[in-house]
Amino acid sequence: MCRVSTYSLFLAVVLAALLLPMHLGAQVLTLDSCRAMALRNNATLENARLEIESAKQTKLAALTKYFPTLSLAAGYFRSQNYLIDVSSEGSGAQIDVTARFDGETMEDRIANLQATLDRYNVDVNLQSEIDNFVDRFSYDITLKMIDRGLFANAVLTQPLFAGGRIVNGNRLAKVGVDVAELKLMMSEREVLLNVEQYYWQVVLLHGKLQPVEQALVLLDTLRRDAEAAQQAGLIGRSEVLKVRLKQAEMQSTRTQIANGIELATMALCQYIGQPYSETLQVEIPQQEEMDNPAALRLEADSSVARRPEYTLLEKSVEAERLRRKMIAGEALPQIAVGSTYGLTDITGAYRANGILFATVSIPLTAWWETAHNLKKQQLAVRMAENSQRNNTELMSLQQHQAYNSLREAYSQIAIKRQAAADAAENLEEVKIYYEAGLTSVSDYLEAQTLFYQAHDQLTDQLIDYKIKELRYRQISGQ
């Protein structure tokens, strides 16, 4: 009865100390509240959400390529010289007169008129008279115009075919949104895992603190008993000194653990975005029975496909294939239709005109360069496919490794629990022998040390299993 009562008393003291708040009215952080605050305040998740918003804006920008483009242009010009400047002059023999009368040339008409005059004996040289008349003429012509003006025009263009780059560009933008959402999902799972690791680190340190507190209580009683025995001459001074040294050691350990709890709580608060306060407490959950790993096991081949990392690999291959199609589109014809309408004022009066047009552009010299770029991108596709296959195999191996580690940790729990129970029974027996005067203070101190170490190792093992269970659930997609 005594052995069982001592172990039960230890558990009761530990549980009561863990569950009772240190300060009335103090804020208590639970595991659920830590998860919620981490999802709300963590900087990594905030950046991941911004990445999604950025990817959505890229998608909306790609969507605009389906619609017509409208451009407006307007301007004013003033030239140093006139745009039209025509000057000409001449006189006398420089003037070449050519005329035609009813189908006859001027020379033929002069010859006919001269024949008529000769027939009537008129003494006139008609060609000479015409030449004398023309020699008295001269001209000087100057034309200057347009040295300033205004213009404005609008051009509306609708692409009909761009080598598939518009369609594939929109598909690639959609993949970008999917990738950003997958990364957010992965970040959320990683953050939740880290939160629990920080949280259970605090729980672990609290679990380490309670056996030390209990040991100090027992050591205080033992010191008083030893001092009384020394005064009665039953034991020597060295036995009392051993008790005091053990007390100092435990007090130093308690200080170290308390400082560790403070730092671990600060780290948890920083990660979840919660201001730290000395009155802040972390709720210590009651010890629960650990799940058997067999109940958590999933087939790696089927569970790997449910992981966001696997989907992200698929999206990576899809993105590289779309980039290959976009590169191929650079060598294909581009067809567009459109219209332009403009206003000009260069002669003092506004003039308007509109034009409808259709264009076909065939990049002939780009085919050679595009062929090399296509080969390069095809290599990128193959590398993405190789990475997908290799990383899928690694994820399957990772899941097997995580399960084996979980199963190993679970098997150690039973061993550590048995060791803790044995240490408690041993401490109870040594205590009885010590009180009966059949064993020394050193043996009693050693039994206490073994008791503390056994429960310290059990606490470590329970937290280790909990963290490995969380990791396995994350890896297996649970």
Strand order of the largest sheet: 2-7-9-10
Order of H and E elements: HEHHEEEEHHEEHHEHHHEEHH
Tell me the count of domains.
Answer: 2
CATH topology of the largest domain: Outer membrane efflux proteins (OEP)
Main pleated-sheet profile: 4 strands, antiparallel
Q: Look at the structure and name the CATH superfamily of the largest domain.
A: Outer membrane efflux proteins (OEP)
Strand content: 5-15%
Please work out how many helical segments DSSP would assign: 12
Task: Write down the overall geometry.
Answer: rod-shaped
The proportion of residues forming helix, as a percent range, comes to: 55-70%
Distance from N terminus to C terminus (CA atoms, Å) equals 44 Å
Uncertain segments: 1-24
Please explain how this structure is put together.
With 478 residues, the chain is an alpha+beta fold. It is rod-shaped, with a radius of gyration of 49 Å. It folds into two domains: 2-69 and 164-335 and 364-475, Outer membrane efflux proteins (OEP), CATH 1.20.1600; 89-145, no CATH class. Helix 6 (165-231) runs antiparallel to helix 10 (308-329), helix 10 packs antiparallel against helix 11 and helix 11 packs antiparallel against helix 12 (441-475). It has a four-stranded antiparallel beta sheet, with no helix packed on it. Strands 1-8 form a two-stranded parallel ribbon. Strands 3-6 form a two-stranded antiparallel sheet. It has helices spanning 2-19, 31-41, 43-63, 106-119, 126-135, 165-231, 237-272, 293-296, 300-304, 308-329, 366-435, 441-475, and strands at 28-29, 69-78, 84-91, 100-101, 104-105, 138-145, 148-161, 281-282, 334-345, 351-361. The protein starts with a helix and ends with a helix.
